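ESCALATION

Customer reports they have been waiting on this structure for their group meeting. Please prioritize. Original submission:
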Amino acid sequence: MGTGTLPWAEAIGAAVGVLLLAPGVRAAARRWGYVDAPSAARWHDRPVALMGGIAIAAALVGTLGVTGTAPALPGLVWIGAGLVFGVGLFDDLWAVQPTAKLLVQMAAAGCVLATGQELWPAGPAWASAPLTFLWVIGITNAFNLIDGLDGLAAGLAAIAAAGLGILAGMGSDPASAGVAAAVAGAAAGFLVFNAPPARLFMGDCGSLVLGYLLAVLALAVPSGGTLTAFLAPALMLAVPLADTALVTVTRLRDQRPLAEGGTDHLHHRLALLWRSEPRAVLGLHAAGLGAALLGLAAHDAGPGLLLGAAGGVVAAAGLAAWHLVRRTEPRVYRDRLRRARSNGTTGPAGAASSAANGTPPNGAPPNGAPETDASASTASAPEDAPDRI
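Update from on-call: job pushed to the front of the queue and completed.
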């Protein structure tokens, strides 16, 4: 067994790289007008520079090249990373249709499969390959979806990468631990510019790359090849998985497109419930840290204990999500209507748009969601929340 420590040279090198590169990226984005402007589907209320993912990706490439750690992952994996970075950058600059983004992500997942990395190596190929494919695409998108409050995605990526790096070290895989440490360092360094109030957003070119690399690192961590053993690295990514599951279920229920923007994510609901964006971010960081520590503790446990730990996390997350939806559903939809009105999108056209998005034009929550006082809706929505979807 390894020492279970992170390679600090990679972590520090990537963090310093981001600190050096991010100011230039921010200045260039502002000069050329590449900023994320407020809208009814966004959470922030001021323009913020985009494309911080360029600094993250460049710092990773530079650090892993200098330390010689990049070969820890096969070349095809890095080609896949380049694909998701490219489609994310195009989306930040010119907007890309969700279908096109998905096709590129499928190609990147195919690159991972072509290297022989699988979620369930000891299982039948007809099951392991589709599971691996869905895992890579799902985690890649999960980090894109949870990049909705200042500092949230970067902090969760740093926690998950550090946990995966320690798992790799415990499994005597120092090369994968080095890549994970670089990802953790880059994400932590980016927090300097992305912590509330954010001065720079990572954009899709950052969130997609972080999600993709974390999905691959979870596959690379030595786990014995069994499906239950994979639960330990999967726990490192419990928070983004929970957010994706919550949004998927509620939007399917309300017959809303899964790919559209909105303020109905886990972090938005917590910010509304607690009336504090920083508190929501810190709460989800604490949940991510707790899940990572549980994954580390369960790494050497038997299948029964692993299944019990995973089942407990799923049950607790399900109960918490049910309670959160009941408490925030009316507020989420009323806040969306308020934002639409403030942007001049109500009236006949706005009502049609609201209906198309599953939001009744009178602001009532769909499908008989429980009503609350009208006063509660205005008091709960943070008027100065500076973040985005």
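Sent to customer with the following note: The beta strands are 35-36, 48-49.
Escalation resolved.
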